[in-house]
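# nightly structure sweep
# worker-07 picked up a monomer target from the shared queue
# config: single-sequence mode, recycle default, output format = structure tokens
# input follows
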Amino acid sequence: PRRSFAATMVMAAKIVLALLMMGSATAFKPMATPRLSRRTAALNMAGVAYPENAERIKVGDAAPAVGLTKAEDDVDDTTVSGLFGKGTSVLVNVPGAFTPTCSNTHVTGYLENLAGLEAEGVDNVYIMAVNDRFVMKAWDDALELDSFREAKIKPELIADGAGTISASMGLLVDKGDMGGRAIRSAVVFKDGVAKYVGVDAGQPEASSAETIMGMLKKEREDAEAAKAAAEAEAKAAAEAAAAEAKAAEVLEGEVDQKQALIGIAVAAAAAYAAYGQSVTPM
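# output follows
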């Protein structure tokens, strides 16, 4: 049967509405997950494996014998223990390159106090983060470290890409999505042995340049005071020994003089006796 014009329009409206609803559902349907390669999927499942932490480094411990690979042809491969084996070096560990606190406060504090650190006997300053060497090179440029390398202390960056060095000192932490990071800290090595370890939970305090300089200044002042006390004690002992020797010399002189007088008296008596025997009675 023939439909009326009105019925036809109603049917057309229903069809259009149904099509609109289907399009809307398609528009808001979640996007399909991109297909991953087998290698990428395997990496996502396994995650990044960082080394386990050794016992945390403490005062008196030797620098770890972990290898360091040269980043440039004119720099020889070495080890952490070899790098810190001579002189006084400060190793500054930061959570990451380019992070605001590390760039604006922690590292800048060391750059601003290089002269003060040198005055307290520091020979080298190294800044280390768990980043690859390309990131660290870019950070080196951003910090304009070349402008500081005309001084005696030449600040250098160490890229601990796999976290091996940090873990060898017990200073690696898992930051979840950010991966493994070095715990904010500072270690002062003297001829390859840790003489100070400062670890921070947040802002740089125990690991700051000011704290390191204060520690070294106090150590220097204590050493100077101990040296002055030892010198004063040695001087007093020498003066006492000299006075005792002089007293003994005077006493010995007095004894010699007394013995001489006795000898003279005995000789005089003997001479008098001999004279008496030689006189003939009248």
